[in-house]
Amino acid sequence: MGGRKWQSIKRQKARVDAQKGKTTTQLSRAIIVAARQGIPDPAGNFQLRTAIEKARAAGVPNDSIDRAIAKGAGTYEDGESNYEEMRYEGYGPGGVAVLIEALTDNRNRTAADLRAAFSKKGGNLGETGCVSWMFSKKGVIRLEGELEEEKLLEALLEGEGERYEWLDEEDGGGVEVFSEVSQLESLNQVLQNHGFAIAETELRWLPENTMEIADPDQAKALMQMIETLEFLDDVQSVTSNFELTEELLALAG
């Protein structure tokens, strides 16, 4: 899995975080859409600000970021295609649910690419709504550095956060804080006001329940399928509801 930590799979209920592998193209598309949907100023557009922060963290050059903002604002003319946000759903090996968020300028091409990635490993692309009911979308803020739990609880109460989870050292340490989507921006601000160091802010689909995978061949096919999906330029995120048994985690480690 390209050095990706298998402990993260266990911790996040098998949601494979592809952010480290995202290309400049994928990150730029997120900026374009965010700038188009709101004002093209990160100071007044939380989604845009978050997309820019992720791009910078991944090493995307400033001129590429500025160009993406201009494209979203409609002030950069180069025949740029119009991207739209799409959600695709399907089933992987063993019947696990897979939820995909994409930004595409050609629905037919994206659907064909996804269908091929699914079928190659024994999965199938389904109809919209076939698995999304198994997930809920949440705001997630990752905090780093020294953290006082009592101070964190106070901030969560003030910012209407739902819960938090401590991260293992092998996952980078710190805490992930969860909120309703509508509360993400205000909670982010409250945490900053309380002096917490924010490493990342995002919207994430979380499975309501998980399926445990114990068969090594099934696990291998599933992870290969998800990795193929993640590295399609149109794909922004891939979420699933599986988790691996302790034995498979040990083998993978």
TrEMBL record:
One of its GO terms (molecular function) is DNA binding. It is found in: Cytoplasm. The keyword Cytoplasm applies. It comes from the Bacteria. SUPFAM superfamilies: YebC-like. Residues 4-74 form the TACO1/YebC-like N-terminal domain. Pfam families: TACO1_YebC_N, Transcrip_reg. Residues 83-242 form the TACO1/YebC-like second and third domain. Keywords: Cytoplasm, DNA-binding, Transcription, Transcription regulation. Belongs to the TACO1 family. NCBIfam families: PRK00110.1, PRK12378.1, YebC/PmpR family DNA-binding transcriptional regulator. This is Probable transcriptional regulatory protein IQ217_06985. It comes from Synechocystis salina LEGE 00031.
